[in-house]
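Re: weekly structure request thread

Next one in the queue (316 aa):
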Amino acid sequence: MNPDSGIPQNLPDDTPVDLAGAFRDSRIQEVLDQLDRELIGLKPVKTRIREIAALLLVDRLRKGLGLTSGAPSLHMSFTGNSGTGKTTVAMRMAEILHRLGYVRKGHLVAVTRDDLVGQYIGHTAPKTREVLKKAMGGVLFIDEAYYLYRAENERDYGQETIEILLQVMENQREDLVVILAGYKDRMEEFFRSNPGMSSRIAHHLDFPDYSPQELLSIAKLMLERQQYYFSAQAEKAFQDYILRRMQMPHFANARSMRNALDRARLRQANRLFARNQAKLTKNDLVTIEAEDILASRVFKEGLPDDKAAVRQGAIK
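Done, posted below.
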């Protein structure tokens, strides 16, 4: 027994290890199941999260046997388009890290450049340190992290934030995990311009866009949680909506689905209100009809001819 650590030393190689019991006691499966319920698809991302969780669980068991391999680096990069679930996955990652004992609190602090970078000399350092203070013991999620660095402006204060982050990511990595997020091409450029930041990132997770079928499933799940559902004709209309919307500017995956459903509910409410004294049923209140979808501007603007073929058979 090491008198300083309390860990048995020189244990035989056949010392039994209850990996299944450790997994059960950590209650990681609850978080993984919640992630499956919250997010449709994203199989590569979910697989990577499970792999990271397995690595950390095995690392904890190794420590229990006095085996050391150095503290694992946990800083991460999440790349992908808007609405692909990066913030949700970051929240669940924080829970996993907490349940395995790698962060003290397990909370997530989500910020952008505006939360970190000041407007004048002497403002950035205290602003950045205040955010880091709030995030200590948990996970700091920096969305659109590439905006911290503006190469075209030599006097930009974002570089000061980056330097502070680099110090904390190295010297306090046992008390804070940093996740940088944003569009893949811009994040790659950011890392090329900041090799010190790139060297501190251990895990790179790329979030793919959702397929039309996955977006339909996401929309139906969103409606179900709000106790609404599509009529048969409304579902067909929404399938067409998805295919059209995907070809238009500023498409944001699940976020665009949520916005579309909010507008559909607004149209449904106005449609019901327009019936004035007509009697309503519960079914009227919970059903989104095709007309609530087809009134969208998406059906008025049309698709470019060269993209119309994408619509054919995209949702099975």
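The first strand starts at residue 76 and ends at 80. Confidence is low (pLDDT under 50) at residues 1-7, 304-313.
Next request, please.
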